[in-house]
From TrEMBL:
Pfam family, one: MreC
Family: Belongs to the MreC family.
Compositional bias segments (type: Low complexity): 273-291
Organism from which the protein derives: Methylophaga aminisulfidivorans
Gene name of the record: mreC
Official protein name in the record: Cell shape-determining protein MreC
One Gene Ontology cellular component: plasma membrane
Keywords assigned: Cell shape
Amino acid sequence: MLIAVIMSVAVFFLDARLDYFKPVRSSLSTLVYPIQATASLPSDIKDWAKEFFNDRKQLREKIAVMNANNLLQHVRLQKLQSLERENMRLRKLLGSSFRLQERVQVAELLTVDLDPFSQQVVIDKGDNYGVYVGQAVLDATGVMGQVSETSSMSSHVILLTDPSHSIPVQINRNGLRAVVTGRGLGELLQMDFLPHNADVRVGDILVTSGLGGRFPVGYPVGQVVSVDFPQGKPFADIKVEPAAKLSTSREVMLVLPGEKIHTGMAEPLIKNASSTTAPSTSEEAVSGNNN
C-alpha cells in the first residue's frame, strides 16, 4: 500500500507539474467522447420530443414572435452597420485603425467538470475542427474562458471562474487596464492589483483589452458590483460579476485566429460547424474602442 501511495503521488506530481501525461489524457478524452455524447442524448431527445408534440397554435405563435424579433433585429442591424461605417470614417480622419469583427466557430457543451477545485466544461469540437489550446471561448453575452486541452473530437474549456484563470481587461468608461482572476465555484471574479486611488466605480463595464493576444478587443467580461478599500492593504478589493452565463449557456463560440469580416456586409455569413459572424455585444464595442 505504501508503494502504491508513493507511485500515486509521483504520478500526480508528474502530471500536475511537468505535464508528462498530456498525450495520455488526450487519447483518453477521445475514447470517452462517445460516452459524453451518449450522456447528452436524453436531453437532446427530450428537447426534440417537446418540439415535436407542440400543437400548431403554439407553433404559429412562436413563428409570429420570431418573425417580429427577426424584423426588429434587421432594423437594429441596419443601425449598427450605419454606426460602424460612421465610426470607420471618423477613425480614418483621426488616423486611427478600426477593428473589424472576428469570425467564430459554434460548438456545444457536452459535459461539465464536477471537480470542485476547477471550473471547466467539455465541448463537442476538437483537433479535427481546428480547435487549439488557448483559443478564446464566448457565449451570447460575453467571454466564458479559453480552451485548455484538446482531443480529436472534444476539448476542455477553462472558465473565467477557475482560480487559475486570469484575463486582461480594461474599464470601458475610462480605458483603465487591469487583470481579472477567478475565485472558484459560486464566487464573483476579482479585479487585482489596482491601488486605492484607481478610478473604478460600481457599475463599470469591463471588456477585453487585447493584451497578450489571446482574447479579441472589446468583448464584455463583466460588471463591477462592489469596490472596497481595506485599510492596511495596498490594493482595492473589487468584485466583478461575469457577463457570460457560465451556468446556463449551452452553445459557445470559438474565436478563429486572424480572420475578420468586412463590416459593410448586408447579411452575416453563417457556416455550419465552421464560422459565423460574431455580433458586437455592446455599444462601446460598436464604437470601436481599442486598446
